[in-house]
Amino acid sequence: MIVQAPDDQARANAPLVPLTEPPPVPVATPWLDRLRHAAIILLAGGIALATLAAFGEITPRAAGVVFACLVAAALVPWRLHTIANPREESYGISPVETPVVRAIVAGMPDPAVLLDRAGRVLHLNAAAAQLAPALRVRELAQFALRNPEIVTALREAIATAEPRSVRYLDHAPIERWMELIIAPVQVPTAFGGTDQCMLMTFHDLTPLRRAEEMRADFVANASHELRTPLAALSGFIDTLLGPARDDAKARARFLGIMQVQATRMARLIDDLLSLSRVELTAHVRPESQIDLMPLIKQVADGLEPLAGERQVSIELELPDSPAMIAGDREELLRVFENLIENALKYGASGGRVVVSVTAVPTSDGGSEYRVAVRDFGPGIAPEHLPRLTERFYRVDVGDSRSQGGTGLGLSLVKHIVNRHRGRLMIESVLKKGATFTVCFPPVKS
Ligand code: ADP
């Protein structure tokens, strides 16, 4: 099974709703009705006048003048009439239903709905129609937004004409945390002046909450990891000051354990600092030109003592030509150190670790360098693969701790590889070993 290492940050920012074509916003066509009414009035008036003129009751000239007045009465005064009665109750249309206001609401990036002072929908944009498909222009928003928290906030905002905000958990189409802000706004009307309306905007808080949860988890995990060796150290200090004060044999043994714990703490702090450094520079791509070959040889040589201790042979399959990439030497050393050390620690039972470098053509016609670290140990069960690069994630916490692991190594690898615009792939078959491959784009010539 191959798993592409996920990016925590990208996952936190990922869009939560499938990006489908938004449904059209329902709009009204009142002008057509009015035109029809005017036509009927004119037709009836025209027939009546023609009949009167035909029977000689009025002169054709007088009939013409009356008909002209009728035309003026039927067509001209829609607007005048509305000025006299500006409330929508008279005509079922609000004076703020202007193209400009509609365009502003439509252009808002978040779901937005403009309500009149009674809570009826005047305008809504496509994002709002997608979020709440039941919303209809000129209908009460409360009917469409059935969430009790929203309805209460809406009622309060309408009653007090004051802003309200509410956070709620939306369940459809997927679970996400939303914030609704209802703000009173004075909207310019078509006839001058302003009208009091309510603007509802919805904001998806899920990425923020996820980031916050990740931060809280991270702090909790880091404190726990630091507290464990610290507790061991203070326990042994107490023992050495107390019961084992004069026991030379116990003292030597305890000091050995304390040294291991202190080293573990130092390593943890080192990894945490490296991680935060890499995160700080994540957006800056390294520029130095680095040949991967000598780096890999240097790391393999440095890990020979550990390989000897674990009775594992490190086999290098490197091409003769250099493999140049744009990189940061220290960070790349950390990547290869972590991967080869993990293979030696967790895959020791296989007896061999193979490190190979190949240039592989890519789909865009270019090529990339792939550094694969393969071991023949117990492998990793498929359900763990997608989570291996999460901070502090370990398949077996006890095993990792006994090997001096911090659970941060692969997370660091992933961040460094991302900074180098590369990829990390993890393949494993249970009982047959694991292969960790990092891919880097070659340096542009
Ligand atoms: P650690 O400090 O625990 O080694 P890493 O982030 O480097 O942390 O690795 C996370 C976990 O992934 C390890 O605890 C181990 O369970 C698993 N792992 C890493 N490399 C291998 C491997 N080559 N074979 C089997 N398991 C591995």
From TrEMBL:
GO terms for molecular function: ATP binding; phosphoprotein phosphatase activity; phosphorelay sensor kinase activity. It is found in: Cell membrane. Keywords: ATP-binding, Cell membrane, Kinase, Membrane, Nucleotide-binding, Phosphoprotein, Transferase, Transmembrane, Transmembrane helix, Two-component regulatory system. The chain crosses the membrane at residues 35-55, 62-80. One of its GO terms (biological process) is cellular response to phosphate starvation. One of its GO terms (cellular component) is plasma membrane. SUPFAM superfamilies: ATPase domain of HSP90 chaperone/DNA topoisomerase II/histidine kinase, Homodimeric domain of signal transducing histidine kinase, PYP-like sensor domain (PAS domain). It catalyses: ATP + protein L-histidine = ADP + protein N-phospho-L-histidine. Its EC number is 2.7.13.3. It is an enzyme of class 2 (transferase). The keyword Transferase applies. Its main location: membrane. This is histidine kinase. It comes from Rhodopseudomonas palustris.
